[in-house]
Amino acid sequence: MKVIVLAGGRGTRLWPLSRERFPKQFLKLIDGKSLLECTYRRAIALANAQDVVTVTSADFLFLTKEIAESVSPKLAESMIAEPNGKNTAPAVGLAVKYISEKLHGAPDEPLLVLTSDHIIEPLEKFVDYMKLGMLAAKEGYLVTFGIKPVRPETGFGYIQIGEAMNGFHKAKRFVEKPDLETAQKYLNEGSYYWNSGMFGFTTAAFLEELRAYQPQIYELLNDSFEDVVRNFEKMPSISMDYAIMEKSNKVVVIPMELSWSDVGSWDSYYDVMEKDQEGNVLVGDVVALNAKNSLAFSDSRLVALAGLEDTLVVETQDVVLIAKKGDSQEVKKLVEELKEQGRKEVTEHPEMVRPWGRYEVLDSGDGYKIKRVLLKPGNSLRPQMHLHRTEHWVVIRGTAQVKIGNETFLLHEGESTFVPKKTVHVLGNHTDSEVEIIEVENGDYLEEDDIVVYDS
After folding, report:
1. For residues 190 and 274, is the Cβ–Cβ distance under 8 A?
2. pLDDT tens profile 234-286
3. Of 75, 232, 273, 395, which is most buried by a Cβ count within 10 Å?
4. For 21-52, how does the pLDDT look when each residue is reduced to its tens digit (9 = 90+)?
5. pTM score of the predicted model
6. Which runs of E-coded beta strand occur in 220-367?
7. What is the CA radius of gyration of the chain?
8. Pairwise CA distance, residues 39 & 7, whole Å
9. Which CATH number is 393's domain given?
10. Are 65 and 72 in contact (CB under 8 A)?
11. Which CATH number belongs to the domain containing residue 86 in this structure?
12. What is the pLDDT of residue 196?
């Protein structure tokens, strides 16, 4: 059995915590763990770590690897960077090609496709349902997993189940996100399940249905893996549901009764989280007085609530979102408005993750910017210079190796150095511990594109 994890999605539905450059699969929403980490832990409860293949965006590859390695180093061995975002069907096809060619997967081996940004509990029930799905996949079916609805939900697609077949059901039809009246009808009828976006099949069954319903994708997958990557931009942008699941007559549904959320909004996050006696979900440094049925999420500082009811408060270092509970879908409209205004808060997270580590802007003003820089062990920035700014570095923790011009030296805790404009410099960490630096930038232009990078 192989597991495919789809981790290339972008989105701002949990804005301001999620941003275009830091989507929700990387958010630490569950007991200090990211949604992607939780997905990996579910995956290795079903398969060996070396049999888990991840498809992600090239922009997120280093961050995805970092999270994978924190769970098991072997998870980072099979990472695929999509050259372009083409929706789920081409992404799954690329992973299937990798499994066949690079991992020598057999045509009749079952494959399980997992999303990377869902909350699913408990693990034991999830594993049992997935194993049942793999049994159906071995019989040649394309398997999807339906969640028994607990409320009339307008934010999910639905699957209507049909004839019962040894623990699973034939899929009768797929339906789009309904209005509230239709969602209530589905709930009352009992044969409609939320579409979880997870799938199971064998390589042979998947390719057979692709050949029948998506010949363009099928033909592109006939090339070598390297050629598929090279020609990936020729793939149509289409989801698994539209590509084959809604068309094939071999689709079955595993009905599941467990706690599940695609965390598509702050309201859905509130729904699945444990509440206090007043119905509040309080995450982080939060104090609530006479507050009821509210969500307060603190990312960086104290959030204090008094006398609020049915309210959403989400705090990050640079944004505070306040909304009425039940209206969190309006966040999408708000983000669009901010995007039209050119606000960087839509795309950039206060803490920017890079292959060498991460940094956050602590303060900025006319002619200056102050950053906290964390450099991972054994990593260095590439040689670079800036035309419009100087930099002053103070080591707060650890020992950095610095090269400024032709001079190379070590910078220890409490020591500092100065980097003039138009001077090539390198900041490195050759120790086995993280290095923390405060960087003060001065100049008439302090944007990130003031940089000239050289080969090492």
Report:
1. no
2. 999 999 999 999 999 999 999 999 999 988 889 989 988 999 999 999 999 99
3. 75
4. 888 999 998 888 999 999 999 999 999 999 99
5. 0.88
6. 251-256, 259-261, 281-283, 286-289, 295-298, 303-306, 311-315, 320-324, 351-354, 357-365
7. 24
8. 10
9. 2.60.120.10
10. no
11. 3.90.550.10
12. 94
Q: Tokens at residue 407, please? A: 């001079």
Examine residue 44 and state whether it is found in any structural domain, yes or no.
yes
Q: Encode burial over 398-411: b for 16+ CB neighbours within 10 A, e otherwise.
A: bebbbebeeeeeeb
Q: In the numeric block, which tokens belong to residue 211? A: 């050949």
Residue 197 CA to residue 199 CA, distance in Å, equals 7
Nearest one of 441, 439, 391 to 418, comparing CA atoms: 391
The letter for the amino acid at 279 is G
Q: What share of the chain has pLDDT > 70, as a percent?
A: 100
Cα(88)–Cα(414) distance, rounded to whole angstroms?
49
Burial label for 339, CB within 10 Å (0-12, 13-18, 19+), is: middle
Which of 302, 299, 386, 413 is closest to 351 using CA atoms? 299
Same domain, 313 and 370: no
Same domain as 146, residue 43: yes
The strand pair at 142-147 and 251-256 is best described as parallel
Alpha-carbon 433 to chain mean position: 27
Q: Considering the domain boundaries, does residue 347 fall inside one?
A: no
Range of the domain at 250: 2-261
Give every residue of the chain whose pLDDT is below 70, as ranges.
none
In contact, 361 and 369? CB cutoff 8 Å: yes
- Confidence (pLDDT) at 49: 96
Q: Which two tokens stand for residue 178?
A: 């309904």
Write down the mean pLDDT value for the chain.
94
Do 156 and 23 share a structural domain? yes
Question: How far apart, in whole angstroms, are the C-alpha atoms of residue 449 and residue 414?
Answer: 29
- In this structure, the strands spanning 281-283 and 295-298 are parallel
Classify strands 142-147 and 192-202 as parallel, antiparallel or unpaired. antiparallel
**Residue 220: what residue type?**
L
> What pLDDT, on the 0 to 100 scale, is given for residue 167?
83
Look at the chain and report how many structural domains it folds into.
Answer: 3
